[in-house]
Amino acid sequence: MSGTVGAVGPASRRRLGEPIPEASRYVMARLDRIRTWSLSPAFLVIVGLGFLFTFYDIFDINVSFVQTCVQLVPGCTPESALASLPLPTLLNLVGYVVGTLVLSPLSDRIGRRNMLLITMLITGLGSLYTALAGDYVNFTISRIVTGIGIGADLAIVNTYIGEVSPKQSRAKFTTVIFIMSALGAFFGIWLGLFLTTAPEPWPAGLPFALGLETGWRWMYAIGAILAVIAIVLRFQLPESPRWLLQRGRIAEAEKIAAAMEERAARRNALAEPTLEGVPTHWPPARSVPYADIFGNPVYLRRMILLFFLWFFGYITVYAYAAGFTSVLTSLSFSPPEAGVVAAVGTLGFVGEAIVMSFIVEKLERRYWLPVATVVTFIGAVIIAVGGQSLAMDFIGAILIFAGFNLWVSPTYALTAENFPTRARSTGFAIVDGVGHLGGGIGIMVLAPLIPHLSVTWALLLISSFLIVASVLAQFTVHTRNRVLEEVSP
């Protein structure tokens, strides 16, 4: 990059913004030489706890909605619950869009940490509202409120992790955080099975399941408690030093950078910081972060490509994440049996996240989507071939849950890397937040079709949208092991 910010294109080279103070450039050079996680390990857990709650909320509807529907929707039965699932799921994702588009840009203005507190507060209030909902209308509205918080939280967490991680391992630490997401999904589905289904002999159900009449309400009450814990712990997080530098708060950024250097030096000697490759001028920033995306042809192209990637990918993700149990029930599995298959499937999610934390940096981000697609299809075929064999269903479900989640964490990293620091949360919000509509629309379109299809065609149809996302991913830019300001000045 040779000291300029011209990697985006000729227009940027002709329109340099304000010079970057030498002190800021030196802090950036010091940050770029760090090659390991250099904040407290506890901060990974703190940020991850927010992800745990977020994915707990995404997946807790999977098993518990059958009971919710029977209690709140007149005439609803376990076999017909799938017909009532699309509306709250779609509006929950509409909440994602509203929340992420309104709140995420504020983190580009007032800071990552401050907004992480606000988004978790909104999410927790939404979960509490859901627990107290007295009818289907209030249940649906409560899912909108929860979605507003979750949508923004996803964007800001991934932005934050990308900015405080070393360039060699941004995807790795995004995936480490994603392990907590997997645990959230695991607890969400297993608690749903434990609290909302009747006891059945294993493996057709859980022999010790409680089957509480208010089990689904306890699911969301627990989510509200998790949100309170996450809020308290997030007060300890430091601000992103890269964001501080762009806001001219050099002394604060230097203090955080010094603490990061001290921790990193305990593991390995640090190289001397060099200003070579560090930009000399800030790119011209607009007063509204959206203008930095829509007003720059490069970022606009990236935004459109990534939006459609997420849109199609989320059709598969949400059909499985929110509706797998309802899909299986509509295909003649009993509710406890369908819940057990989904619950066992979450083991694949947890195992995938752990394995990926070790290998995710071995490949460029865009190559993981085709791998995920193949694994998901193999799982779908195994369930289709296995029929009523629970052993085969378990193996297939594990592979499905591993596959449809395998691509998410590297693509989170890729998305954050594709936008500049001054508008990184905003860019992530647009493509990931609005892209979530793919999940809702997909369920709305797929739900009426599923009961009329065989297990084979139902699962293959749901999985097929990952093929489109995989093709789109191949047109994204190379970001692995590159400085953020070089990829996205």
UniProtKB/TrEMBL annotation:
Keyword field contains Transport: yes
Localization per Swiss-Prot or TrEMBL: Cell membrane
Taxonomic classification: Bacteria, Bacillati, Actinomycetota, Actinomycetes, Micrococcales
Name of the protein described by the UniProt record: MFS transporter
Alphabetical list of Gene3D superfamilies matching this protein: MFS general substrate transporter like domains
InterPro entries: MFS_dom, MFS_sugar_transport-like, MFS_trans_sf, Sugar_transporter_CS
PANTHER family noted in UniProt: SYNAPTIC VESICLE GLYCOPROTEIN 2
Chief subcellular location: membrane
Residues annotated as domain Major facilitator superfamily (MFS) profile: 43-481
Keywords assigned: Membrane, Transmembrane, Transmembrane helix, Transport
Pfam families: Sugar_tr
GO molecular function, one term: transmembrane transporter activity
Membrane topology category: Multi-pass membrane protein
Membrane spanning stretches: 34-56, 81-103, 115-134, 140-161, 173-198, 218-237, 304-328, 340-360, 367-388, 394-415, 427-450, 456-477
One GO CC annotation: plasma membrane
